[in-house]
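pls ignore typos typing on phone
5-fluoro-uridine-5'-monophosphate + seq
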Amino acid sequence: MERKQTNLSVSVDVTKAKDFLAIIDTVGPFVCLIKTHIDIIEDFDSTVIDRLQELSKKHDFLIFEDRKFADIGNTVALQYSSGVYKIASWAHITNAHAVPGPSIVTGLASIGVPLQRGLILLAEMSSKGALTTGSYTEDAVRMARARRDFVIGFIAQHRMETIGASEGDDLADEDFLVLAPGVGLDAKGDAMGQQYRTPEEVVLACGCDIIIVGRGIYGKSDQLNTESVEEQAKRYRSAGWDAYKKRVSL
Ligand code: 5FU
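k done
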């Protein structure tokens, strides 16, 4: 983030490998992180991963597969390491729901820690009516604190620092990343329950670190226009970074 002066992560939710790679090559210079849903690509094969890894080196960004694991430890270890996608072999970061309890982190860590991967826990979701509130969010934060060798942050809508802390907890060197999806400069939501806030609200007012932006940058994926994608990436990058600079200088 510091090296590239950006806290923008672009979520590339398109179904054709060609569009997926074209968007990543276009936004690459402006992002710290590319977020993927690899299982929505219709013409997936292993060359997509080779190319994604080349782009990650070319543009100096990390890869975050938004897999949202949610099963028992043994199953998630297999889902993370194996199958068609072999996520652990290429995604620097992935994420998991806290709902199964700490064993989900143990299962994923058995694969991810030896590969020096990082895990994000879903503490709060952006969708309307999400059940990730109150004591659920607190427990997700406690689960992260217990595995700081692997858990590097949260998907959340606010800073999590003191949430779920008990008296006597030493939080002095706690520095979890907070990644916020549900960010848009032009729309307030979509027809399926997504809710958008501006970078200023998310980063400055709520203390999140990274803004995750999908359709706000590439629009409707059936009308891909790389010039406008580049323009929007620059726009969100400066809105996110300005808000971040304001927050850290407060
Ligand atoms: F965990 C979450 C969440 O709480 N909200 C989300 O929107 C993840 N997401 C993802 O961020 C979602 O799966 C999309 O990939 C992306 C948001 O895309 P948008 O086009 O900016 O709405």
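Residues 121 and 154 are 5 Å apart (CA to CA). The helical segments are 17-27, 46-59, 73-81, 103-112, 134-145, 199-205, 215-218, 226-248. more later
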